[in-house]
DUF4397 domain-containing protein
Amino acid sequence: MRKFDNKYSLVRFLHAVPGIMPVDIYLNGSLLFNRVFFTQFSPYIYIPEGAYELTVFYTRTKENPILRQTIRIRNGELATLSMTGNYYDIKALIIPEDKNGISGDNSKMRVVHLSPNLPELNILSYDLTLFSNVRFREVTDYIELPSNFYKINIELSQNNRLLRSNRIAINPSQIYTLYIIGNFPSFQIFQSMDGVSFLTPVIRQN
């Protein structure tokens, strides 16, 4: 575990663009991460506050970037920086993460919809709706859940058609994000622990 330094932000990168080969990620011309595959998360690294030119190339190339975008990093943030969309509509999305943690037997969970060809979605556990009408590139609020095993169903909001079911484990005192990644019909649900799970308790609730 590591101690959080509020003079910087802790940021990781997620490749969430279907059909795009491994990529190298640069900030202001300096290599940040290399050879990141589709659905892969990079490690978290410290980044100082500031405005940066984010440039993404296919691995081992430095011509014709597939993404060039100015992003703003603020001090004291935990975040996932995701490359989203399809080849013809690639955008960077900064996804802030909860730094406060949670104590006891409950945990927190939210959903990020990154499937480019899916419309609004409902996310249910059995017959209980957890999140409704989640749009592409939307980041939901966190909800608290007791630690347990859950069956997660992804449905179309328009007609409640079931698209995918996953069984996930929610462990006590953790913070999770469910990332919906890939194009229908082959999209997947990826359960990821947010960065606070890897930090020392200095920024977590007692």
Remarks:
- The chain has two domains: 8-97, 102-196.
